[in-house]
Amino acid sequence: MPASRTTLHRSLAAAAALPLLAVALTACGYGSDAKKDDKVAPAAKGEKVGGLDTVKVGYFPNLTHATALVGDQEGIIQKELGGTKLAASTFNAGPSEIEALNAGSIDIGFIGPSPSINGYVKSKGQSLRIVGGAASGGVKLVVNPKKIKSLDDIKGKKIATPQLGNTQDVAFLNWISEKGWKVDAQSGKGDVSVVRTENKVTPDAYKSGAIDGAWVPEPTASKLVSEGGKVLLDESTLWPDKKFVITNIIVSQKFLKEHPDVVEAVLRGSVKTNAWINANPDKAKASANAKLKELSGKALPPEVIDPAWKSIQFTDDPLAATLQAEAEHAVKAGLLKQPDLAGIYDLKPLNKVLKAAGKPEVADASLGVK
Hints:
This protein is an alpha/beta fold.
């Protein structure tokens, strides 16, 4: 998928493309659009970081945001903030989270690559910075094995993606293009019928026969498998080292400028959370599921969460080169004008945290603040 890095010279008529990406979901959320976490959270204790009373953090109630789920549930991030209270809000859609960031309703967010790119481009590089990584992987092509036996059988079938222009939609359109098949990105019609379907209703669409499969994130992919679907392709196999960004950490530029020490504290918490997740996978999985139950009212059953959890890698590295590739795929699909992503990253705070923890620093693929 990212193997071909062809320079894109053609001019794309994409005047409406950014709004399309602006309504895109980054992954599967099962809560309300912006839900306050009202559970009795770990208490803010000690000295306030930089004298700040509260830092407002947004994330999605799904497994690809487990760094935030677990970091919040276990109080790991709060501990790094001392007396500064972590106030969490959850979102279903990337655009809603970007709007909240722009409005100052949140200061920091865990979010996918497409809305990060779109938010940066729409603001002409003024709204946000990506300051860290959180997760890689967790996206699969799941099909009805009675109708589809091989990847070539995808042609002529109805395959769901979460939403027009979202991260998985762009990935699937790019994969179709690599196969040499043609699909109109806007309508989804062509050699493959791309059916934009919300993740929460995709399993029912699959059971009813309305779709023949889906290119979706976890836990939707494992929900489909529990309904008799078969994993035909794991997207990670299409990327170098089987890694690609699915969740990163953004911050408003205003907040980063005014409260760099608070951003550093949250990043320290995310790094420690990822280390704890990777050292204690079963406990971390249970912690994430407990948070999901609290947020959505329902925990994921073992047959869904177990395979889903195994397919996600939790990493501090934002995998910047893959974000650049994903932007190129959106351009190639005609969903985005060629973006200028210079300055979208500021990894100095993260690299300071990583160095202090004795961990290797991470790169910004020449897209960092100069």
